[in-house]
Amino acid sequence: MYRSHTCGELRLADAEKEVVLTGWVQKSRKLGGGITFVDLRDRYGVTQLAFYRDLDADLYEEANKLGREFVLQVTGTVKERSSKNNNIATGDIEIHVAKLLILNKSDVPPFTIEDETDGGDDIRMKYRYLDLRRNPVRKNLELRHRIAFETRNYLDKQHFLEVETPVLIGSTPEGARDFVVPSRMNPGEFYALPQSPQLFKQLLMVSGFDRYFQIVKCFRDEDLRADRQPEFTQIDCEMSFVEQEDVLNIFEGLVKHLFKVVKGIDIPELPRMTYAHAMKYYGSDKPDTRFGMEFVEIKDLTAGKNFGVFDDAEYVGAICAPNAASYTRKQLDELTNFVKRPQIGAKGLIYVRYETDGTLRSSVDKFYTPVDLAKWAERCNAKPGDLILILSGETEKTQKQLCELRLEVGDRLGLRDKDTFNCLWVIDFPLLEKDEELGRFFAKHHPFTSPKKEDIEYLDSDPGVVRANAYDMVINGVEVGGGSVRIHNSDLQEKMFEVLGFTPEKAQAQFGFLMNAFKYGAPPHAGLAFGLDRLVSLFAGLDSIRDCIAFPKNNSGRDVMIDAPSQIDIEQLKELCIEVKKSE
Amino acid sequence: MYRSHTCGELRLADAEKEVVLTGWVQKSRKLGGGITFVDLRDRYGVTQLAFYRDLDADLYEEANKLGREFVLQVTGTVKERSSKNNNIATGDIEIHVAKLLILNKSDVPPFTIEDETDGGDDIRMKYRYLDLRRNPVRKNLELRHRIAFETRNYLDKQHFLEVETPVLIGSTPEGARDFVVPSRMNPGEFYALPQSPQLFKQLLMVSGFDRYFQIVKCFRDEDLRADRQPEFTQIDCEMSFVEQEDVLNIFEGLVKHLFKVVKGIDIPELPRMTYAHAMKYYGSDKPDTRFGMEFVEIKDLTAGKNFGVFDDAEYVGAICAPNAASYTRKQLDELTNFVKRPQIGAKGLIYVRYETDGTLRSSVDKFYTPVDLAKWAERCNAKPGDLILILSGETEKTQKQLCELRLEVGDRLGLRDKDTFNCLWVIDFPLLEKDEELGRFFAKHHPFTSPKKEDIEYLDSDPGVVRANAYDMVINGVEVGGGSVRIHNSDLQEKMFEVLGFTPEKAQAQFGFLMNAFKYGAPPHAGLAFGLDRLVSLFAGLDSIRDCIAFPKNNSGRDVMIDAPSQIDIEQLKELCIEVKKSE
Question: Which domain CATH number covers A26?
């Protein structure tokens, strides 16, 4: 071992010990009077090295030549500092160095290795191995390790077995976004990389594994958004002989465990919100419940006053922003511009200021009297000082716009604190989703998702109202996980395929393999998957999942550090029996 | 929850409890006198269900119609059995069933779901999800879970961080056996799947992660042998500021921990055997040390007696098989045929029987007197009753043959017990390996492996004798892990490339990326990787790694269950900008 202690370890109690430390030069400060301090950094902390010209002039000179990020081994004595630093754990001591060995030099790094660096995104990604030296980046990955580790601890205690499912699997007709892998041994044939281990985990239930989980890489070859990566990690789970309630309880327990052991936070029992409720009051199936401002429908209160915008609207919805009546004209204009952005697409924004003196002023005073406005305010539970914001139009579209507005106002009012965590289950999702263009229904989750028993009778007459035994866990407006109870009864499964417009032949072609397996005694089963990347970024208070991935890819799916993907050798292509054929 | 208890849980103390069980029909026995017993199985065990015609004739009739592998939910009362079964944990009780619900029927499975099944390899692989229902197969995967889990426990306690490295990486010129993945977003470009995370783990050391591990899938597109799979799992580790000794100690600790918690076995301190010693006394760098029979060189004792075979041989080596003097002519012929098989390639086998009466009889009595033979026996430490077996020829080749013979005889003498575990480190591997045809040296491990300090001076003059700081862990003759101290000094690295015949340009092209990273302060580092599949199969006493993988591929790299790889849609190929071009 090159060291006796780490750079985060020494305390006043260690004073006068002879120690050997290793690490990187964080910075060095040449003070007057022949004293030089060097901060030595490793994963565990920073320790101050002290060099005194009076004690050893040669060593002092050497120390003055050390560059940033040099790798050192120093031998010395732990001494109490004269001026202590309370900001770091080792701040009471310094090392009076007796021996200095440069283990490796370093070129000047292309950006500073500090919590707040001067490096832009691109350069930091290119030199990701240096970016990873920075405390905040490393801490995200330490957090990721801890979350994965504690997930395994919890699930192991609940008798889950971690089973590795294959990475090289078969491509399916619906797998348009599969990554494929040519097989050298089977010319002209391809493996696919899994978008999820769904098939295999259901097979493991058929195998009687009872409780399965896996922290597993999954792959999707599609255009990437800020929070998507071509490879991502799932906490994938499945259980047998359980109902929805059991799955919710077990995984509520997981999340409580993680918050407790990783962040020291006690999470209260997770509320369960129906999909219908979430859409009606938040305009989203992943409501951010850290703050109120639920939607209030006021269409009936606005009718018949000759305000065409509201009269013609299918839906008029309000949110009440607490203590925002003091918003300036400029602030209100910003909000109006926000909702009018093409991504949101509202035509305009109506507001009512509930002044602290009790008066009500709105942008539609021409049409509505203070008595009208008071009725709105009453329904919104508004108090003096609040600001009511109103959007109108086609119901679903307007609710989505109102959802965006609510989140924006929540941000502006500081109601979306990253250190506050609000978790809930969203349940009772619709089983099917109608493609209005094609005029037919698709499975919202997947075709093996079980409908609610009491809704099965509507599968033929009114498929759109059938609810599924499907559930999502939502934290702070982020869907961190979701799953469903699966169909294990073959009659019901056939019925589902019929509703989805599959001929028996087509069903067999696409799903025959799993259906055949189900012939040999499939148990009732249910499961879910959490997105580990999202979970970690939420715990870390990050905006993007990229910052909790050691070596992420950019929005074009490129690893700019190693420059992948890249062209490959013509010989290698030949061996794989493929040719590149760029379409012109 | 469909059940109140599992099928492995109920004991005599639970008698008279009302319980609900779920599981699969293992078998049913219709006894005389209106009694039917059904064994209900789940992952946790088997519980006997009892149906009595006298108590409920309808239920009794229903029970008689249950087929193998039907999925049941039963409600009933726990009763003490009249005739107990000591072979199973629930053998003291049975369930008097009051309610029977068939959760799912089952077709008759294509083979019996028993510890000893009637299904051949092919059918079991095709229906792997049924094969996984069998106890021995499931137990292997439970063991795998436990080993992975305890590996993480141990390494976490040692401050290792599990960091996920990318699966979609870049192909390298030496990556002839890389699986490649066309990128849709980057037409004409390919990712590669990692053969190991070597590059990334060394980068993480440059990043100051200090202690990294990962249980990770790796990929190799090559012809498969019985114990190879195109995707396999490594316990991959790397540490900074350590020397070889530190790595050996940490991972000796890991293996001791695994044996202790998983198998309840205390493993003594691991002996360290040099590569030179292993080759000289076992003819292998992965000696099976569960038994003795080390090689004894007797060339000097055999010389000058006109026995041309020995006189002309570079090497004459013996092994002494304890208590095998009683081997019959037939048994000796079998051994002779064994060594003469083309895979082994010896010309013949000489033996000396040290009879229990003290006389010595050999197959070369024409050339050697009993006094000669007594000298051989003495050097072999042979005792009356032992059998000495001798091979001769070119040194290296003969040692390999003698190695095979030793293992075969060890098998025949029952000295290779699967429940005995003998672990050791093999160290001081040669740094370089000479390709005799090409007349040049190659890195035995990889070009970043560090030579021993005291051998560096021979890098130019006699590269073949230079030893590496490289090490393998060997258990029962199986290499379960290995690694090395890496070069972190750029001068030494350049020297290595020179010895390996790389021009600076070629070195830059192939390894430039890592070399550049090393410019920014690489710490001294070292690591190793264990093959999880091999480790588990060893713990399970299996001959093949396939049996400890949930969904393995066959020798052609095919998953016969899901029939992958397979052809893919022409449209999909077009989108990926590739074409299949089978060479004729």
Answer: 2.40.50.140
